[in-house]
Amino acid sequence: MSIEVGSVVNGVVTGITNFGAFVELDGGETGLVHISEVADAYVKDVKNYLKVNEEVNVKVISVDDDGKIGLSIKQLSDKNKRKKFTKAPRKSFDDMMSDFLKESSEKQQDLRRSLEKRSGNVR
Q1: Which residue ranges does the record annotate as region Disordered (predicted)?
Q2: How does pLDDT run across 95-104, given as a tens digit for each residue?
Q3: Which helix (H) or strand (E) segment is 24 a member of?
Q4: For residue 63, what is the domain's CATH number?
Q5: Minimal CA–CA distance to 77: which of 92, 63, 58, 104?
């Protein structure tokens, strides 16, 4: 199977490390989803986002001369976000503000949990 940069392929997570996840692609080749390419949010532990044997869709972002394949999950979600905003019906200002406040609140909760874990005050 020829892997081309920019293509979206299916694969299975075969291993998780502190720097990312290895994904076996259809055709038997293996690529790496670096921790920075797992999600839009800050990822401290890849295991919070992916599990071994989980089936995932990934975007091929690089193939170097040694045959190492760089993959991204995050860039697929970015593509979906752009599509959502460009093809969705226009929202009112109140709806957009409500969406923003909800997303902001969720991000604040994630930050609070992260800070609580660091300080040892896990609830």
Answers
A1: 96-123
A2: 889 988 999 8
A3: strand 20-25
A4: 2.40.50.140
A5: 58
